[in-house]
Amino acid sequence: MSTITSSRKASFYILAAIYFVAAGLGFLTYRFLSFENINSFLALFIADVVATIWVWMYGMFYKNVSVYDPYWSVLPPVMLTCWAIHCGNIGLIGALVLIAVWYWGIRLTGNWAYTFRNLDTEDWRYTKYRTEQKPFVFQIINFFGLNMMPTIVVFLAMLPAIDLISSIETWRAASLPMWLGFAVCLAAATIQLIADTQRHRFAKEHKGEVCKVGLWKHGRHPNYFGEISMWWGIWIMFVSVNGFSNHLWYLVGPVAMTCLFLFISIPLMEKRQLQNKPGYAQYKKETRMLI
Fold first, then answer.
1. How many CB atoms sit inside 10 A of residue 36's CB?
2. What is the pLDDT of residues 195-218, one digit of tens each?
Protein backbone atom coordinates (compact mmCIF):
# COMPACT_ATOMS: atom_id res chain seq x y z
CA MET A 1 0.00 0.00 0.00
CA SER A 2 2.80 2.42 0.83
CA THR A 3 6.34 2.62 2.12
CA ILE A 4 4.90 3.04 5.62
CA THR A 5 2.99 -0.24 5.61
CA SER A 6 5.91 -2.04 3.99
CA SER A 7 8.07 -1.07 6.98
CA ARG A 8 8.02 -3.65 9.77
CA LYS A 9 8.73 -1.04 12.44
CA ALA A 10 6.09 1.40 11.21
CA SER A 11 3.57 -1.43 10.90
CA PHE A 12 4.15 -2.34 14.56
CA TYR A 13 3.46 1.26 15.59
CA ILE A 14 0.29 1.38 13.51
CA LEU A 15 -1.00 -1.87 15.01
CA ALA A 16 -0.14 -0.70 18.52
CA ALA A 17 -2.20 2.46 17.95
CA ILE A 18 -5.12 0.46 16.52
CA TYR A 19 -5.15 -1.89 19.49
CA PHE A 20 -4.72 0.90 22.02
CA VAL A 21 -7.83 2.62 20.68
CA ALA A 22 -9.65 -0.73 20.50
CA ALA A 23 -8.93 -1.29 24.20
CA GLY A 24 -10.20 2.19 24.99
CA LEU A 25 -13.40 1.66 23.02
CA GLY A 26 -13.95 -1.66 24.76
CA PHE A 27 -13.47 -0.05 28.16
CA LEU A 28 -15.83 2.84 27.41
CA THR A 29 -18.43 0.43 26.04
CA TYR A 30 -18.31 -1.67 29.19
CA ARG A 31 -18.55 1.39 31.43
CA PHE A 32 -21.54 2.72 29.50
CA LEU A 33 -23.35 -0.63 29.62
CA SER A 34 -22.60 -1.07 33.32
CA PHE A 35 -24.53 2.15 34.00
CA GLU A 36 -27.46 0.65 32.07
CA ASN A 37 -27.60 -2.28 34.52
CA ILE A 38 -26.80 -4.82 31.82
CA ASN A 39 -25.43 -8.19 32.95
CA SER A 40 -21.68 -7.82 33.50
CA PHE A 41 -20.75 -10.84 31.37
CA LEU A 42 -22.96 -9.61 28.52
CA ALA A 43 -21.44 -6.13 28.82
CA LEU A 44 -17.96 -7.66 28.60
CA PHE A 45 -18.94 -9.58 25.49
CA ILE A 46 -20.43 -6.51 23.79
CA ALA A 47 -17.27 -4.54 24.62
CA ASP A 48 -15.25 -7.38 23.08
CA VAL A 49 -17.39 -7.22 19.92
CA VAL A 50 -16.99 -3.44 19.68
CA ALA A 51 -13.20 -3.75 19.93
CA THR A 52 -13.26 -6.50 17.29
CA ILE A 53 -15.27 -4.32 14.90
CA TRP A 54 -12.73 -1.52 15.32
CA VAL A 55 -9.87 -3.88 14.43
CA TRP A 56 -11.89 -5.34 11.53
CA MET A 57 -12.43 -1.84 10.12
CA TYR A 58 -8.68 -1.28 9.95
CA GLY A 59 -8.23 -4.69 8.35
CA MET A 60 -10.65 -3.45 5.69
CA PHE A 61 -8.78 -0.15 5.37
CA TYR A 62 -5.40 -1.84 4.89
CA LYS A 63 -6.94 -4.71 2.88
CA ASN A 64 -5.24 -7.09 5.26
CA VAL A 65 -7.17 -9.48 7.52
CA SER A 66 -3.94 -10.17 9.43
CA VAL A 67 -4.53 -6.90 11.29
CA TYR A 68 -6.75 -9.07 13.50
CA ASP A 69 -4.11 -11.76 14.21
CA PRO A 70 -2.70 -10.34 17.49
CA TYR A 71 -6.22 -9.95 18.89
CA TRP A 72 -6.39 -13.67 19.72
CA SER A 73 -3.53 -13.51 22.23
CA VAL A 74 -3.60 -9.86 23.32
CA LEU A 75 -7.23 -9.63 24.44
CA PRO A 76 -7.46 -12.43 27.10
CA PRO A 77 -4.68 -11.28 29.46
CA VAL A 78 -5.66 -7.60 29.16
CA MET A 79 -9.37 -8.23 29.63
CA LEU A 80 -8.91 -10.65 32.54
CA THR A 81 -6.50 -8.29 34.31
CA CYS A 82 -8.92 -5.36 33.98
CA TRP A 83 -11.73 -7.63 35.14
CA ALA A 84 -9.76 -8.74 38.21
CA ILE A 85 -8.99 -5.13 39.12
CA HIS A 86 -12.63 -4.18 38.58
CA CYS A 87 -13.85 -7.05 40.79
CA GLY A 88 -11.13 -6.54 43.39
CA ASN A 89 -10.50 -10.28 43.40
CA ILE A 90 -6.85 -11.13 42.93
CA GLY A 91 -6.43 -13.79 45.59
CA LEU A 92 -4.29 -16.87 45.08
CA ILE A 93 -6.71 -18.53 42.67
CA GLY A 94 -7.21 -15.31 40.72
CA ALA A 95 -3.44 -14.85 40.56
CA LEU A 96 -2.96 -18.38 39.20
CA VAL A 97 -5.50 -17.71 36.45
CA LEU A 98 -3.79 -14.45 35.49
CA ILE A 99 -0.31 -15.99 35.53
CA ALA A 100 -1.45 -18.82 33.27
CA VAL A 101 -3.17 -16.53 30.78
CA TRP A 102 -0.37 -13.94 30.74
CA TYR A 103 2.26 -16.64 30.17
CA TRP A 104 0.24 -18.05 27.30
CA GLY A 105 -0.54 -14.58 25.89
CA ILE A 106 3.03 -13.28 25.99
CA ARG A 107 4.36 -16.45 24.38
CA LEU A 108 1.79 -16.47 21.59
CA THR A 109 2.07 -12.73 20.94
CA GLY A 110 5.85 -13.10 20.86
CA ASN A 111 5.57 -15.80 18.23
CA TRP A 112 3.26 -13.58 16.18
CA ALA A 113 5.71 -10.67 16.46
CA TYR A 114 8.59 -12.92 15.38
CA THR A 115 6.79 -13.99 12.20
CA PHE A 116 5.16 -10.62 11.47
CA ARG A 117 6.60 -8.84 8.42
CA ASN A 118 4.52 -5.75 7.76
CA LEU A 119 1.02 -4.54 6.96
CA ASP A 120 1.52 -5.36 3.31
CA THR A 121 1.85 -9.06 4.12
CA GLU A 122 -1.31 -11.08 4.70
CA ASP A 123 -1.54 -14.62 6.10
CA TRP A 124 -1.87 -17.13 3.25
CA ARG A 125 -5.17 -18.45 4.64
CA TYR A 126 -6.83 -15.06 4.32
CA THR A 127 -5.38 -14.51 0.87
CA LYS A 128 -6.76 -17.89 -0.15
CA TYR A 129 -10.29 -16.86 0.81
CA ARG A 130 -9.80 -13.45 -0.81
CA THR A 131 -8.75 -14.91 -4.17
CA GLU A 132 -11.15 -17.86 -4.24
CA GLN A 133 -14.35 -16.02 -3.27
CA LYS A 134 -16.29 -13.22 -4.88
CA PRO A 135 -15.60 -9.86 -3.16
CA PHE A 136 -19.02 -9.69 -1.46
CA VAL A 137 -18.81 -13.29 -0.25
CA PHE A 138 -15.27 -12.74 1.00
CA GLN A 139 -16.31 -9.71 3.04
CA ILE A 140 -19.01 -11.80 4.74
CA ILE A 141 -16.45 -14.51 5.49
CA ASN A 142 -14.00 -11.83 6.62
CA PHE A 143 -16.33 -10.22 9.16
CA PHE A 144 -18.15 -13.25 10.54
CA GLY A 145 -15.67 -16.07 9.97
CA LEU A 146 -12.20 -14.52 10.23
CA ASN A 147 -12.83 -11.79 12.80
CA MET A 148 -16.01 -12.31 14.78
CA MET A 149 -15.97 -16.11 15.10
CA PRO A 150 -12.50 -16.26 16.73
CA THR A 151 -13.54 -13.46 19.10
CA ILE A 152 -16.64 -15.43 20.13
CA VAL A 153 -14.74 -18.70 20.53
CA VAL A 154 -12.02 -17.11 22.68
CA PHE A 155 -14.62 -15.29 24.80
CA LEU A 156 -16.47 -18.55 25.41
CA ALA A 157 -13.19 -20.21 26.37
CA MET A 158 -12.48 -17.33 28.77
CA LEU A 159 -15.86 -17.51 30.52
CA PRO A 160 -14.68 -20.01 33.18
CA ALA A 161 -11.77 -17.67 34.00
CA ILE A 162 -14.01 -14.59 34.05
CA ASP A 163 -16.47 -16.34 36.36
CA LEU A 164 -13.71 -17.67 38.59
CA ILE A 165 -12.08 -14.26 39.02
CA SER A 166 -15.41 -12.58 39.78
CA SER A 167 -16.15 -15.08 42.55
CA ILE A 168 -15.13 -14.61 46.17
CA GLU A 169 -13.81 -18.16 45.88
CA THR A 170 -10.64 -16.71 44.38
CA TRP A 171 -9.47 -16.03 47.94
CA ARG A 172 -9.68 -19.70 48.89
CA ALA A 173 -6.61 -21.91 49.14
CA ALA A 174 -5.86 -23.64 45.85
CA SER A 175 -6.84 -27.32 45.80
CA LEU A 176 -4.91 -30.10 44.08
CA PRO A 177 -7.23 -30.04 41.00
CA MET A 178 -6.68 -26.26 40.81
CA TRP A 179 -2.93 -26.78 40.71
CA LEU A 180 -3.47 -29.53 38.12
CA GLY A 181 -5.38 -27.13 35.86
CA PHE A 182 -2.69 -24.49 36.37
CA ALA A 183 -0.01 -27.04 35.46
CA VAL A 184 -1.93 -28.00 32.32
CA CYS A 185 -2.01 -24.34 31.25
CA LEU A 186 1.71 -23.83 31.84
CA ALA A 187 2.57 -27.09 30.11
CA ALA A 188 0.35 -26.20 27.16
CA ALA A 189 2.01 -22.81 26.62
CA THR A 190 5.45 -24.38 27.06
CA ILE A 191 4.64 -27.05 24.48
CA GLN A 192 3.69 -24.26 22.07
CA LEU A 193 6.91 -22.41 22.84
CA ILE A 194 9.07 -25.47 22.22
CA ALA A 195 7.15 -26.53 19.12
CA ASP A 196 7.28 -23.10 17.46
CA THR A 197 10.97 -22.66 18.33
CA GLN A 198 11.82 -26.05 16.83
CA ARG A 199 9.82 -25.27 13.70
CA HIS A 200 11.44 -21.85 13.18
CA ARG A 201 14.94 -23.28 13.59
CA PHE A 202 14.19 -26.16 11.24
CA ALA A 203 12.68 -23.88 8.59
CA LYS A 204 15.85 -21.74 8.49
CA GLU A 205 18.07 -24.71 7.65
CA HIS A 206 15.65 -26.92 5.73
CA LYS A 207 13.42 -24.62 3.72
CA GLY A 208 10.53 -26.41 2.05
CA GLU A 209 11.05 -29.67 3.95
CA VAL A 210 8.71 -31.36 6.40
CA CYS A 211 9.63 -30.64 10.02
CA LYS A 212 10.03 -33.97 11.83
CA VAL A 213 12.25 -32.94 14.70
CA GLY A 214 11.51 -32.67 18.41
CA LEU A 215 7.82 -32.52 19.22
CA TRP A 216 6.99 -32.58 15.51
CA LYS A 217 8.32 -36.13 15.38
CA HIS A 218 5.52 -37.26 17.68
CA GLY A 219 2.63 -35.09 16.47
CA ARG A 220 1.85 -33.18 13.29
CA HIS A 221 0.48 -30.18 15.18
CA PRO A 222 2.04 -29.91 18.66
CA ASN A 223 1.45 -26.14 18.65
CA TYR A 224 -2.27 -26.64 18.11
CA PHE A 225 -2.30 -29.35 20.76
CA GLY A 226 -0.86 -26.80 23.17
CA GLU A 227 -3.49 -24.21 22.24
CA ILE A 228 -6.36 -26.64 22.76
CA SER A 229 -4.89 -27.88 26.06
CA MET A 230 -4.54 -24.32 27.37
CA TRP A 231 -8.28 -23.74 27.42
CA TRP A 232 -9.05 -27.15 28.87
CA GLY A 233 -6.64 -26.22 31.65
CA ILE A 234 -8.64 -23.05 32.35
CA TRP A 235 -11.82 -25.11 32.49
CA ILE A 236 -10.21 -27.57 34.92
CA MET A 237 -9.28 -24.64 37.17
CA PHE A 238 -12.90 -23.50 37.20
CA VAL A 239 -14.26 -26.99 37.87
CA SER A 240 -11.81 -27.45 40.75
CA VAL A 241 -13.60 -24.66 42.62
CA ASN A 242 -17.18 -24.83 41.36
CA GLY A 243 -17.63 -28.51 40.60
CA PHE A 244 -18.47 -30.24 37.32
CA SER A 245 -22.25 -29.78 37.45
CA ASN A 246 -22.20 -26.02 38.07
CA HIS A 247 -22.28 -24.05 34.83
CA LEU A 248 -21.91 -27.21 32.78
CA TRP A 249 -22.49 -25.13 29.64
CA TYR A 250 -19.06 -23.58 30.16
CA LEU A 251 -17.83 -26.72 28.41
CA VAL A 252 -18.88 -25.03 25.18
CA GLY A 253 -15.70 -22.89 25.32
CA PRO A 254 -12.99 -25.58 25.29
CA VAL A 255 -15.16 -27.78 23.06
CA ALA A 256 -15.59 -24.95 20.52
CA MET A 257 -11.84 -24.27 20.66
CA THR A 258 -11.12 -27.96 20.02
CA CYS A 259 -13.55 -28.09 17.10
CA LEU A 260 -12.09 -24.91 15.60
CA PHE A 261 -8.69 -26.55 15.30
CA LEU A 262 -9.82 -30.09 14.46
CA PHE A 263 -12.27 -29.14 11.73
CA ILE A 264 -10.98 -25.83 10.34
CA SER A 265 -7.37 -24.92 11.16
CA ILE A 266 -5.78 -28.36 10.88
CA PRO A 267 -7.53 -29.49 7.65
CA LEU A 268 -6.71 -26.14 6.01
CA MET A 269 -3.06 -26.36 7.07
CA GLU A 270 -2.68 -29.99 6.02
CA LYS A 271 -4.18 -29.35 2.61
CA ARG A 272 -1.54 -26.67 2.03
CA GLN A 273 1.27 -28.89 3.35
CA LEU A 274 0.24 -31.75 1.08
CA GLN A 275 0.35 -29.41 -1.91
CA ASN A 276 3.64 -27.68 -1.10
CA LYS A 277 5.83 -30.17 0.74
CA PRO A 278 6.96 -33.45 -0.81
CA GLY A 279 6.88 -36.20 1.77
CA TYR A 280 4.07 -34.71 3.84
CA ALA A 281 1.64 -37.44 2.79
CA GLN A 282 3.98 -40.08 4.20
CA TYR A 283 4.59 -37.98 7.31
CA LYS A 284 0.83 -37.76 7.79
CA LYS A 285 0.52 -41.56 7.62
CA GLU A 286 3.33 -42.12 10.10
CA THR A 287 2.56 -39.36 12.62
CA ARG A 288 -0.47 -38.73 14.80
CA MET A 289 -2.38 -35.49 14.47
CA LEU A 290 -1.99 -34.05 17.97
CA ILE A 291 -0.60 -36.44 20.58
1. 7
2. 999 999 999 999 889 999 999 999
